[in-house]
Amino acid sequence: MNTMTRTLVSLTAAAGVAAGGLAGAATATAQPARSAPAAVSTRDAAALAVNNLGLSTTQARYVQCWIKAKWNYKGALDGQLGTQSWKSLQRWLKTHWGYKDDIDGIVGKNTISALQRDLKKYHGYQGKIDGIAGAKTKAAFKDFAADSKPYC
Fold it and tell me: At 75, phi and psi to the nearest 5?
């Protein structure tokens, strides 16, 4: 059983014990049974970690081809910019675009800000360097992806 499932089962069991103990003290009225929350699978968690920033899977695959050629990306070329893809991108952003956080694959404000610096210089981004992946950032990232196509 994975950690997420164990945690959910433990919390559900604790809530059930607490509710059962209180129900008997309050009234004799039967309470309807409550179902346990659905467990989150590893596959579901991985899907949540994907952040293509508006790219199609084809465009995201082009980016993966570029990071494979340039930044030692060893993951699948599946068009899903997940944790491993973003770790490779963060290595590039740290080396060239002022990214200062951990190489953790999390697409946060500092990752986006560093990406925006590249997009502003080379891909037509005309917005603020604000760490927000809005429409202008996403449009410029699509230009980045188009430039990455020859690496596939």
Answer: -80, -175
